[in-house]
Write a structure and sequence with these properties.
Oligomer: single chain
Strand order of the largest sheet: 6-1-30-29-28
CATH superfamily: YVTN repeat-like/Quinoprotein amine dehydrogenase
CATH architecture: 7 Propeller
Pfam families: WD40
Distance between the termini: 66 Å
Helix content: under 10%
CATH class: Mainly Beta
Protein name: WD repeat-containing protein 79
Number of domains: 1
CATH topology: Methylamine Dehydrogenase, Chain H
Organism: Cryptolaemus montrouzieri
Family: Belongs to the TCAB1 family.
Keywords: Repeat, WD repeat
């Protein structure tokens, strides 16, 4: 498997400009809901595949699931307002019972090349796994060890921009594996605090951001399979949980736990934040952010169930944000489709027990994975005619 994937030619996805229409409310396209159990099976993030054909999500206590984009949404610039909501069913499920920390797609994923269709995951007290996106089978593992030769679980995982390396952030180091060589062969880069989040810049090859539990971000440069420190960014109040680079690689957006600010850093002048925007985050849970492929819009979830959108095309603080109240519970995952005006969101969080009744209120549960249309909408003329006739007859 790994030899085939190593030989596969990696090509950056073709950048196409997506037109978003934020003037109208988002139209729900598809949904899947996981039932509630006593052990809280809530969702923990969603990720579009690089080619946009499928969506990966993590469900606490119920593994990982891949849902496919409905076929009628592959093309077309307009969606009818009367389009029914498509019930999603996982095309692939991996019933991992343990706690899953992080997951990410292979950056060169292309559904026409099966060898590239895979994703990484890291979990509690286990190695990093590489999963086949067609079958859900385990392809291979990458095993990091600590000083007493025990498996050192990765808190965060990420591919390099070219897909040739895997970065695994643990409590005391970041381990760098070669993608085509699974096992325990790696290069180690020591860190002062647990590496809770790792992202690689696609525009600036070799530049990697490492976010820690200690509210700091370390920028490093990858060369010859090792890391070299560039600078350290400080400004968040909590541990870093989510980051994304801008399209040109000159900016970095970051968010943290129990921190109501998303910070934009100008990496050309990294001494202080370029600007900050506010969101609702009052939990230790990871609340994701994402950037549109055109680089203009930044989106974020929130513990209040709202999705916030900012126009960050200028190097100034956005004057206002657009808000979409899409969920009744915490919206912890947001992911913009790479080529279509479609937003994927997921909701859910841990609800504490009522100390008096030893039960939880089911009214606030919403463990849902949804797809939303952010493009042009059109009223169905047949539906309008039917409404007029019904009103006339009445």
């Amino acid at each position: 498997m790994t030899d085939i994937m190593a030989d596969a030619v990696y090509e950056m996805p073709v950048q196409s400009y997506v037109t978003y229409n934020f003037e109208k409310s988002a139209q729900e396209l598809a949904r899947i809901v996981w039932p509630n159990y006593h052990d809280q099976h809530y969702l923990k993030g969603c990720y579009w595949s690089p080619d946009g054909t499928c969506l990966l999500t993590i469900v606490r206590g119920a593994g990982m699931h891949v849902c496919e984009l409905p076929t009628d949404l592959y093309s077309g610039d307009v969606v009818m307002s009367s389009r029914p909501i498509t019930p999603l069913n996982p095309a692939v499920s991996v019933p991992e019972q343990g706690l899953i920390y992080d997951a990410c797609w292979y950056p060169g994923m292309n559904s026409t090349i099966p060898a590239t269709c895979c994703w990484l995951s890291s979990g509690h007290e286990g190695p990093v796994h590489l999963w086949d996106a067609f079958t859900g089978n385990l392809r291979c593992t990458y095993r990091g060890y600590n000083s007493v030769d025990e498996i050192d679980p990765a808190l965060s995982v990420s591919f390099s921009a070219d897909g040739q390396n895997i970065f695994c952030g643990s409590k005391k180091s970041v381990k760098i594996f070669h993608t085509s060589r699974p096992g325990r062969e790696y290069v180690k880069y020591d860190v002062s605090h647990p590496a809770a989040c790792i992202v690689a810049s696609h525009a600036q090859p070799g530049v990697v951001a490492i976010g820690s539990w200690k509210n700091t971000i370390e920028l490093v440069s990858q060369s010859d399979g090792t890391f070299r420190n560039l600078c350290k960014l400080q400004g968040h109040k909590g541990g870093i949980t989510t980051m994304t680079f801008s399209l040109d690689g000159f900016k970095l957006f970051s968010g943290a736990r129990k921190d109501k600010e998303v910070i934009c850093w100008d990496l050309r002048v990294p001494g202080r934040p370029l600007f900050c925007v506010g969101r609702e985050v009052n939990t230790n849970q990871k609340i994701a952010i994402d950037l549109s492929r055109c680089g203009r819009y930044l989106v974020s979830g929130g513990t209040d169930g709202k999705v916030l959108i900012w126009d960050v095309s200028q190097n100034v603080t956005p004057q206002e944000n657009m808000q979409m109240p899409l969920h009744n519970d915490c919206c912890n995952g947001v992911s913009l489709h790479p080529t279509r005006p479609i937003l994927a969101t997921c909701s859910g969080q841990h609800h504490t027990l009522d100390p008096l009744h030893h039960s939880r209120s089911n009214s606030s549960y919403e463990n849902a994975l949804c797809m939303w249309w952010l493009g042009q909408q059109q009223e169905d003329p047949d539906l309008i005619t039917a409404i007029i006739r019904a009103a006339t007859n009445a």
